[in-house]
Amino acid sequence: MKLVTQVKLMPEADQAAALRATLRTVNKSANWVSVVAFERGVPREYELRKHTYAELKARGLGAQAAQHVIKKVRDAYTTLKGNLKAGNLGKPGSKRRARAESRPVAFRLDAAQPYDDRCLSWQYDQRTVSIWTVAGRLKGVRFACSPDALTMLREDRKGESDLIERDGVFYLIATCDIPEPQVYEPAGFVGVDLGIANIATTSTGYRAAGRGLNRHRERQLDLRKKLQAKGTKSAKRLLKKRARKEARHTANVNHVVSKTIVTTAERTGRGIALEDLTGIRSRVRLRKDQRTTLHSWSFHQLATFVEYKAKRAGVPLVYVDPAYTSQECSQCHHIDRKNRVDQATFACRACGTLLHADDNASHNIARRGETAWTSGRESRVPATP
């Protein structure tokens, strides 16, 4: 499986200036290549190279850097085509779609630039890198990362690394190819009910309350309203900074929750059953004052974190249909809308079972996960002679 690890570069002043100039140069060149590609109907990479490679070399880019700029532009148009086909940019005729189709793809001046092993080398013991720039090859650029990240880089790094600049700080994002362990045969499943009031509730009794995260988002929303009303340049800069801070905070919470879920399943020899919530935002009808809460719900990110952590640990994971999991009794399996008394209370009208609503749903999800695993796994019955 492929994972990425991020290291922080700690260049000297002259090295930082060279790295910054490099990003500006390659992204200006990428914007020029994008215009050429747009005017020529987005040709294939080899044909695009014939029209742009010589000019990129004349602009001071090395051979590998020029190749990566061309490939980056072609990949950007491939992504745009995929988004248009999937309808992610609106329906045909919509303003957003028309705007995306009517002009070349543009790159920020500090956008990521890919490096391969020909223009970037790592010295793990010294914790330094040697990297190509428009000012020549920089050697001995120091980097910092955690011991686990260093071990991953040393043992599993493979492929390209991206140089990015974020708030004046440079980072290298390296691709690592991690060997996947064999998935074990689970002794039952841990059902995970995802929600807003409670981020995640498992059938083993773990409940991650969402109150703290929701309060944090409410504070950020109030601050955004004030900054947007102000409308100055400094307010817009602060808006971007706060958005990144909120995203980091949410990701950290989801990492903690997902690690707890996967660790529990691994320790008990169970698998993990998650709800398939694809398209829930388009299916649910809510009042206007509830829409912000729904659209800031990061259930997909949490599921992604659980999925890759489970794969890395060899924990079986299945997705199940979430329909009626909140209305079905986990004891007698009676389904009734009236079973859900309120957000937190489940009271079965048939057998009288009284549970926390999320606990009840998690048990239903665990049972469905076991059914899905049993029906989907390979048969161990000997073949008939």
Structure description:
This protein is α+β, with helices and mostly antiparallel strands. Helices cover 48% and strands 21% of the residues. The chain has 11 helices and 14 strands. The chain has a 7-stranded antiparallel β-sheet. Strands 10-9-8-11-12 form a 5-stranded mixed β-sheet. Strands 13-14 form a two-stranded antiparallel ribbon. A hairpin with a 2-residue loop joins strand 6 (157-166) and strand 7 (169-177). Helix 2 crosses helix 3, helix 6 (211-230) packs antiparallel against helix 7 (233-268) and helix 7 (233-268) packs across helix 10 (299-313). The longest helix has 36 residues, at 233-268.
**Overall mean confidence score, pLDDT:** 91
Number of strands: 14
Q: What is the oligomeric state here? A: single chain
Shape type? globular
Count of individual helical segments: 11
Helix and strand element order: EHHHHEEEEHEEEEEHHEHHHEEEH
Helix/strand/pairing class, anyone?
alpha+beta
How much helix, percentage-wise, in residues? 40-55%
- Terminal CA distance reads 38 Å
Low-confidence blocks of residues: none
Radius of gyration, in Å, reads: 25 Å
Relevant terms:
7-stranded antiparallel β-sheet, single chain, alpha+beta, 385 residues
Short description:
By secondary structure, this protein is α+β, with helices and mostly antiparallel strands. It contains 11 helices and 14 strands.
